[in-house]
Amino acid sequence: MNTLTIDFLETLFKKEKESSLFGKWICLKDIQELLKKYEATFQVSQIGTSEQERPIYQLKIGAGKKKILLWSQMHGNESTGTKALFDVFNCFLNTNAKEFTTILEACTLVFIPMLNPDGAAVYTRVNGNNIDLNRDAVARKAKESKILRTLLEDFSPDFCFNLHDQRTIFNVENTQNPATISFLAPAEEPTRALTAGRKHTMNVIVAMNALLQQVLPNCVGRYTDEFYPTATGDNFQKLGYNTILIESGHYPEDYEREMSRKYTFFAVLQGVFHIAVTNDFSSYQGYFSIPNNAANFYDVLHRFPDPQKNSAYQFKDEIIDGVLVSKLCKSDEKSLKGKFGHYEIVFDY
Fold first, then answer.
1. Do 267 and 311 form a contact (C-beta atoms < 8 A)?
2. What is the pLDDT of residues 197-215, one digit of tens each?
3. Using an 8 Å Cβ cutoff, are 89 and 96 in contact?
4. Beta strands 311-320 and 323-330: pairing type?
5. What number does CATH give the domain 6-294?
6. Domain extents for the chain?
């Protein structure tokens, strides 16, 4: 297995992190001017407009036979992958390291850094017509879904990277560790059969996990592979386009998702490099050694001597007067047995 070194990635991230992008609320206005600096190195083009007529852009680079399609912010309020992609763009713009030469010689890369600019503008999961794009792969009612599908069929990628954020509730099964990064090789049908395409997808995930375990030991999870008939990853996998789902999650005291941004950057670069230098993707068994996600976290947990009095709270993000505000809301769950908090307050009376 060809694994990038942690020192190399740490140095890259420190140097190439796009400083103009920070926090959880990333909108089209945050990236539109930024795209201009990549025009000399990438093919930057508008590939359509959203339901509310905001432009949707793609960036293309490389001349290799292996085709990779990557997109982010299919859900407007999930921006960690977007930040990580711009960090990756800076690497191609500024770095002459042999690893990037290898990628560009072997691969052609197409990126959509923000598929849902309408949702991003108001920090919602859905698009401007209240459609969840990640559940619109069959009906394709949304303009954004049509754009993605047209690009998929025209480009015909060997691998896709579908970048999402996951909630702070997730831990790595049988641990009290947050699932900072989770992976999924989507199922193609209800029996979750291990098709050749799924095995190839798993092979790339194994390589990414091997890298992350060096810096995030026991903090990487495996997202449920329950088949969703209308989901994007499931349908793209079913159509023969190997689709890797990356879910960027919580890192301790990292509610701005800046550390998970770094590890998403690590994962994307490792995944793309692995594809570039690998010809046999048949080995997949290591995928099943990645623990499942569990959902046992709250943001804040109050513990009392009488467990019946314990109470739990989750942050709810809202845009108020043009500012992203996180409100702490009490959970109505009755039993907190086996649950834990990112912050725990213990009362001894």
1. no
2. 999 999 999 999 999 999 9
3. no
4. antiparallel
5. 3.40.630.10
6. 6-294, 297-346
